[in-house]
Specification:
Elements (H helix, E strand, L loop, with lengths): L1 E5 L10 H16 L4 E6 L14 E5 L5 H15 L4 E4 L12 E4 L18 H20 L2 E4 L2 H11 L8 E3 L14 H11 L5 E4 L9 H13 L6 E4 L4 H11 L8 E3 L8 H7 L3 E3 L8 H8 L4 E4 L4 H5 L4 E3 L4 H13 L1 H15 L4 H16 L9
Parallel strand pairs: 1-2, 1-4, 2-3, 4-5, 5-6, 6-7, 8-9, 8-11, 9-10, 11-12, 12-13
């Protein structure tokens, strides 16, 4: 079977969540499948060494234009040119029109929910991207042979939103994984190398926030401000890939501009440096308002770090009983969680041990095997056109 996989952004230097999921899927398919023939469609960029071709995996670089043109024109043309019998689009969107049977990984439908396109918060780039998704995704869903999503919570949201029958086989939940390189880093030389590279403080909480309102950055900053004001052990807050100007605006909104003196911005961090940053932190903050999965929780758990996360969306499903669960809309609960994990060693150790066990339930290899099984099921079906 000839299978096309869309990986438009795989070669960009600064990869984020969906890019890493697609990359890990392909890398693990290369390990477990030597029979099917794959065509990986990417856009040329500076990190072409992140993925290597093999005898049955061909990397096809498609030039040209902005994201919509590449996806809606260049990609379906290439899938036809290379004789693909199946096209898997990995990052929420796909060609609206293609004669090749289509699988789409729909990570979430947050942009289709009651979030206004012009809502305060988020960048204009994010808002324009959401406008594109709002136009494309309903049409893609109607034309897809199978829709993969990443948690049972998100599967139910998609089913309810689009009116799928309860047991419709077109909608499949396949969990994400977590990289094997995420493990406690105890080597002092490696810890010192990362500390010097990113100028990390000695004692810190770790937070992966961004300008997307769902990440609850404002709520985390308010909770951290209250933590420091409560007179507990002073620590810094380490944040990745966040602009100082955006941070200043949020600190003004919460009424504590002096908090900037207790925050350390690292800039972009390459994925292979993350285990050491997790390992050196006192706790990991992930009280998002809405997530379809939450890979960073599992990364932190594998590194032996206690996690604070939310009681909303997919996060209880993924974290199990291995995280401290809070109401993300209540900054006082987040603050209380910080204090508890700093003052209650038994709770801290219990969550660390449970975190090791919970995170072991998820792997990229298992995810790739489930996706491959889906490909094989479709290959055995004579007519894989979507239901009308």
């Amino acid at each position: 079977m000839k299978i096309g996989i869309e990986g438009q952004r795989l070669f960009r230097l600064k990869k984020h969540g969906m890019d890493m999921v697609a990359l890990e899927l392909i890398r693990n398919l290369q390990i477990i499948d030597q029979e099917n023939e794959y065509f990986i469609f990417v856009k040329p960029d500076s990190d072409s060494g992140c993925l290597q071709p093999t005898d049955n995996f061909h990397i096809i670089e498609l030039n040209g234009g902005p994201y919509p043109w590449w996806e809606q024109v260049a990609l379906p043309r290439a899938a036809l040119k290379y004789g693909c019998e199946l096209l898997h689009c990995t990052s929420n969107t796909a060609p609206v029109k293609t004669s090749v049977p289509l699988i789409v990984t729909l990570h979430d439908i947050i942009y289709l929910e009651s979030i206004s396109l012009l809502k305060k918060g988020g960048t204009w780039y994010q808002k324009i991207g959401n406008m594109y998704r709002r136009f494309v995704v309903p049409r893609v869903v109607a034309n897809s042979t199978r829709i993969i999503t990443v948690s049972h919570f998100e599967k139910n949201r998609i089913r309810e939103f689009f009116g799928f029958p309860p047991a419709d086989p077109r909608l499949v939940a396949i969990y994400n994984g977590v990289g094997e390189h995420f493990k406690p880093v105890s080597d002092e030389q490696e810890r010192e190398r990362i500390r010097n590279k990113y100028k990390l403080p000695e004692d810190y909480f770790f937070f992966l926030g961004n300008t997307d309102p769902k990440k609850n950055t404002k709520g985390v900053l308010k909770a951290f401000s209250d933590y420091l004001k409560s007179g507990n052990s002073p620590v810094k807050l380490v944040m990745l890939d966040y602009e100082r100007s955006a941070l200043d605006l949020l600190l003004t909104e919460i009424g504590d501009r002096e908090l900037i003196n207790h925050i350390h911005l690292t800039g972009y961090v390459v994925n292979t440096d993350l285990p050491a940053i997790y390992s050196m932190s006192r706790l990991f903050l992930y009280p998002s308002l809405r997530e379809s999965f939450g890979i960073p929780m599992l990364e932190a758990m594998r590194c032996g770090v206690p996690v604070i996360t939310s009681d909303t969306s997919s996060m209880p499903e993924v974290s199990g009983n291995a995280a401290l669960i809070v109401n993300p809309y209540n900054s006082e609960e987040i603050t209380s969680g910080m204090i508890r994990l700093m003052k209650e060693p038994d709770l801290r150790n219990d969550l660390i041990q449970k975190g090791f066990g919970q995170s072991e339930k998820f792997s990229w290899n298992s995810m790739a095997k489930e996706v491959l099984q889906l490909y094989q099921e479709l290959a055995s079906i004579k007519d894989v056109a979507p239901k009308k």
